[in-house]
Every structure is written in structure tokens, then in C-alpha cells.
Amino acid sequence: MADHLNTIKDAVIGGKHAEIKELVQKALDEGLDPGGIINDALIAAMDVVGKDFGSGKIFVPEMLVAAMTMKAGLEIVKPRLAGGASQSRGTIIMATVKGDLHDIGKNLVTMMLEGAGFKVFDLGVDLGVDKLIEQVKALNPDVLGLSALLTTTMSEMQKVIGELKAQGLRDRIKVLVGGAPVDQAFADKIGADGYGANAADAVELARRFTGTHA
Ligand code: B12
Q1: Stated pTM of the model
Q2: Using a 6 Å cutoff on CB, does residue 101 contact ligand 1?
Q3: 132 C-alpha vs ligand 1 centroid, how far in Å?
Q4: In order of start, what are the domains of the chain with their CATH numbers?
């Protein structure tokens, strides 16, 4: 079991894009838990990649290939996560804020929310305040989930909350924030309704916000 996880982890770190799908499929076929594959192999690999990038051991191209490999692996796990809940528990908009192109974490949160039965509108990356507000008005979701991976883009979250207030929309939506540089203190400071450290937290908070439970 641990062998499979290590092989998948190493494949992501090494950017073995051509091999990853088969490796993940094999692990699933042999009964490994999808959550374990995500947390202990795919996410664990990105942690290593982040550290290697931070210390100058690898550069953007390697980080990009690792990210593509991680995404390809996630696609294989995805069908196993979708719980196929028949009734929607609520509606959620997910987006990565303006100036930020990181979407792996957001995609993972989206997948887990969908698996938990929420209807999720994934608006993608680099979403400016105006576009987000326009979509909040159009889709009227219960929850707005914002992701930021850069310290330089976190402040966009505060701008979104400010604009929701300015347009009289703040009371009809819960704002959930996340991403590696974000924490509870930051969420409190900007007046978000919740902070989630990972996709499981996101599901838990979304359930709390919408008054729906497993
Ligand atoms: C992969 C990656 C990239 C890829 C992104 C590919 C993609 N499609 O996403 C590429 C190569 C494009 C990239 C580019 C850059 N990156 Co980059 N990248 C990373 C890396 C290695 C991994 C991120 C990741 O996917 N993690 C795995 C996922 C699953 O974790 P996650 O995103 O944190 O999400 C989890 C939680 O945070 C949470 N979550 C996330 N979003 C949300 C939202 C809600 C609502 C909730 C509740 C929870 C939640 O749940 C998720 C699941 O558990 C990180 C290092 C790291 N360890 O974070 C650096 C990192 C974020 N990047 C960094 C940098 C500097 C850059 C660049 C500026 C590099 C450059 N010089 O060009 C550019 C910026 C591009 C841009 N404008 O956005 C720095 C940021 C430093 C800082 N202080 O801001 C980091 C920390 C690397 C480092 N150690 O220096 N990057």
C-alpha cells in the first residue's frame, strides 16, 4: 500500500506525466482509498515540490510539470469521489482571486464539495472583483469560496468582501477563504465567514453554512 503511495508521490515530484494515470488507476484497482491517494501521495508530492522550489532546487518549469502531473492524477481519482447525491445541498461559487493562477487546491475543494452533494460553479482562476460580483448577482449562491496561493493576491479577498458590502450583497452570502498563505487570523481580519485549511474543512464549513449535514 505504502509502496503505491510512494510511487505516485515520486511520479508527481518527478513530473512523470505519461505514467501517472496508470499508477493511480492501479492503486485504485488494488483497493487504495481515494482520500489516501490524494492526501498521502498527490498533495504530499506538491508539498515537496513547493519546498524544492522555495529552496531553489527546482524552477518554474519543473513546478509546472509536477502540477500537470498532479492534475492528471486527480482526474483519475475524481469519479471515485463524486458521491452522486441526488439532492443539492446548496450552491457554491469557487474561484481563485485576481492575479493568481494556482488552481489545484481550488479544483480539489470543488471536487470534494461536488462529491458532498453541493452544486458548484467553478469560475476558474484570476477572477477580478467585478466579475465575481457579477456572478454572485447572477447565480445567487449560498457560499462564495475564494482561493489564493500567493501572499500578493490574498488582499483581493478583502476587496471582494468590501465590494459585496458596498453593493448590499454581504448578508445574503457566506464567504469562505482558503489557500496556503491564508489562515484563520487573516480570515477574521478581512471579515470572512470561514477559513478552511483543506478540502475536508471546506465541506464541513459549507454544510454548516447551509444547515445541511451528512
Ligand atoms: C504548483 C505550483 C505552481 C504552479 C500552479 C499550477 C496550477 N495550475 O495550479 C505554477 C508553476 C503555474 C506556479 C506558478 C507560480 N508560483 Co507557485 N506554487 C505551486 C506549489 C508548488 C503547489 C501549489 C499546489 O497546487 N498545492 C497543492 C494543493 C492541493 O494545495 P493548496 O493549493 O494549498 O490547496 C489546499 C488548501 O490550501 C485548501 N484550499 C485551497 N484553496 C481553497 C479555497 C477554499 C475556499 C478553502 C476552504 C480551502 C482551500 O484546500 C486545498 C486542498 O487541501 C506551491 C507550493 C505549495 N506547497 O503551496 C507554489 C507557490 C504557491 N508558488 C509560488 C510562486 C512564487 C509562484 C510564481 C510567482 C513563480 C514565478 N516566479 O513565476 C508563479 C505565480 C503565478 C501566478 N500568477 O499565480 C510560491 C508563493 C510564495 C508566496 N509567498 O506567495 C509558492 C509557495 C512556492 C514557494 N515555496 O515559494 N506555481
Answers
A1: 0.90
A2: yes
A3: 21
A4: 2-81 (1.10.1240.10), 91-210 (3.40.50.280)
